[in-house]
Amino acid sequence: MDKLITHSPILIIAIPLLAAFLTPLISRANQKARDVLVITTLAFAEFLVIILARDICANGIHIYTLGASSPTLTIPEQYMVPVRIILEVDAMSIFMCIIWATVSLAAAIYSLSSMKEETGRDRFYTLLLLMVGGTFGMMLTGDLFNLFVFLEISSIAGGALAAFRTRFADALEGGLKYIIISTVGALMVLFAIGIFYAQYNLLNIAALAQVIQYTMLDKIALTLLVTAFAMKTGVVPLHMWFPDTYTVAPASITAMLVISSHACMYLLFRICFSLYGVTLNMATVGWIIIILGVLSMFVGVTMAVPQTDIKRLMSYHAISQIGYMWLGVGVGLAVLGNPEALATYGREAISGGIFHILNHAVYKPLLFLTAGALFYRTGTRDLNRMGGLGHSMKLTSIFFIIGTLSISGVPPLNGFASKFMIYESVYRFNPILAVIAMLVSIITLASFTKAFQSAFMGPELSAYKGVKEVPKSMIIGMGIPAAGIIFFSLFPGLIVDWIVHPAADALINQATYINAVMGG
Amino acid sequence: MTQGAPFNVPFLAVAALIGIAFYIILSQRNLIKLVMGLGIMASGVNLFLVTLGYREGGVAPIYTHAPIERMVLPVPQALTLTSIVIAVATLALMLSMVVHIYRHTGSIDSEESRTMKG
Amino acid sequence: MATLEFGLDFWDPIVCVIAFLVLIAVAYLLRSRGQKKYKKGTVQTQIFLSGEEPPDVEQRHIKAHNIYWGFFQALKGYYDPTIKAHTGIINDYIIWFAAIAAITAVILFIVG
Amino acid sequence: MMSKIVRTISNILSLFIFVYGLYIIIHGHLTPGGGFQGGAVVASGVALLIVAFGSHNIHKSLKEHHLSILESGGALIFIGLAFGGIATVFFYNFLVGSSIFGHIPPSGPNPGDIWTGGVIPFMNLAVGLKVLAGLSAILLVMALATSVMEVEE
Prior knowledge:
The complex is a heterotetramer of chains A (520), B (118), C (112) and D (153). Chain B has 118 residues and is mainly α. Chain B is built from three helices and no strands. Chain B has one domain: Helix Hairpins, CATH 1.10.287. Chain B has helices at 9-27, 31-52, 75-105. Chain C is mainly alpha-helical. Among the domains of chain C are: 1-33; 76-112. In chain C, a hairpin with a 2-residue loop joins strand 1 and strand 2. The longest helix of chain C is centred in the C-terminal third of the chain and has 22 residues, at 90-111. By secondary structure, chain D is an all-alpha fold. In chain D, helix 1 packs antiparallel against helix 2 (35-53). Chain D has helices at residues 4-26, 35-53, 55-61, 64-84, 120-152. The interface between A and C is large, with 66 and 50 residues.
């Protein structure tokens, strides 16, 4: 068991990759065995993530050096700096991993029946597992170059999955847009990495953080990193690929793509807090993040209201919710240099933003999966052609209501808890921002009322007379996030104390992050 | 990094390549040309990385008759190689998507072939 | 455990749930005092529209694009340019990226 | 399908290209090159054959699902070798200094013995297998796709 915990960071990445290449071989022999393999792999990854999370809560940051003679030997004797591939897992990374493991498991279970009619499902699961492995890598890596590699693995697999249903022209268009955006972003990230290497001859984040100076070149690198990750996260005005891609991807993949874009947001926070940290002019960068966040909140939600495609509407809401996270963490970053403000409201703002990632990661997949369930039974995403589905798809409509109330921040659901943290702390920073955040919440509710009214309410339409409830595995796939919503709603204090505050502290304490690798 | 004019020429080439690539991506509506622009951008970034790896008087780290103390840590070369591999995969994927898009819409213009906006 | 404390404020979902339960109980009480003496399957349970025939099922449902018509009409000045900016052309997305990168760089160089 | 001269020459030439690619793969840990470069060279030989003989003729003997099995196999061998070191650390070079091929290779500069890299030559082989299969599959599928389109028009 100890050995398993020691090796768990790499196992979390490697086992999905191993299974990804086993899948095409096994599915040639037996389709059922392939399904079992996929689910078992993801469940095992989830198990590893949870035991690693328990270990990190107890013992702090977990280091794993690949190819060394011992997992914690970060700096070999002849060297002054870390040279190997190092995985560095702190509370923030494992927090993202918990989210990703759970969502990908739910999405895979859901895919078992929702993708049943598609051809080439062995490739689908190969790509899905590659994306799982790549995104885990983004969350766990401790050096910049692997960050780039895993970013590309995740975005290539994601783009191919988004375009998976090649019989639709729009699916290909969405996939192509995603992959072009990702490539441009990743190349800019690589350029920034090159700038770091040119100046410091280092690639490890912790080692770089020790020597970084915020010169002219570092500012260029910061610009490239912030904009590239902002584009991958889908922040206004770099958000336009977001609805295009998410609308056309299969529902389970959309749920996963949302979280993988959150992983890019995590990378941005990691760069700002752990790499630049105290050398940064926090107020400037903090305000850039806050302004982008407020823009996405407002433009995202106002663009969502006129949409008539249900998944497009939800994608715009995802943009708006991402704005909340940027607002919360941006406020925390802006006051990072001011210990008094940080203690009064900065830490709570960061916690609120991070807690919102968790909440968004349960209710947005749920909503996308219900949209997928509607598509599965009606064959359309157009809200104009839906109506009266609440009569026949009762469970789906209940799941939709839960998701709607949660995303709109209606008490007592979990969306309210994190939004309340953001409102309270942001109000002390700047009251206007908090007012905008509340206004956005109201428009969110209005927009989802429209979606619910046109899809589920009203008399039973003749076109959908024979529509039945979706199959069991899709219900289970929707049930996992729904159960998560109920749990987080009832015990927000527990969740915040267990994983959210440690994650926020891990972001704030740059010194701990550096010392874990550099020692002393 | 060594000082002096000849050593800065590669960086000018990097700037030119990335500039050309951005010009292509921003102005060309043809999807194939756009993918070519991305390829040029990848080449520019790769050239940047390889140029960073140059050390005056250094020797390639191959353990045949090479003096150990002059060997260069081949990190930038490894980065470049990985990035080339990734660029190959990305370009292949994008081109096959463009082929499919052409089959569906009969056009490889990014404005004519789009189905979604607003 | 359920209470979320931060700064001076706190949030307790259990209180909220109890309040909702009380409200549901009151609503149920009110509902149970209503009339129960209607006859099923007669005109009494059908839609009454001032004596007119109710329109057929497809007509009764309000379609999605009709909802919030006034809202969009009032905010036309905001919506027209915003929707126009979402061109759906991939080149424009990269233009936005370049523009934001340039603006961020300028801000970082000037302010610090 | 091109003229007879081209076909004959490329038939002969492709063998040399394959052998050169395999040489680069096997000597990856000693000379510049390695799995990816060698695999790309082999795939360029396949490209030559596709150009000379036409994709449909090649497709009769080289099916893409066979290539995809080969590709998965290469990736599995690579990850398997990485897992081989898990007793110490993932990716640990567990073969270095062992005597699988009869003698223990000396460390430090040497005139270019093949058996010096421990697990690295095997990883190069796995990567080479994956890359040659993957790139050939891409070339073949794309050539097929474009030739189908010519027929349609």
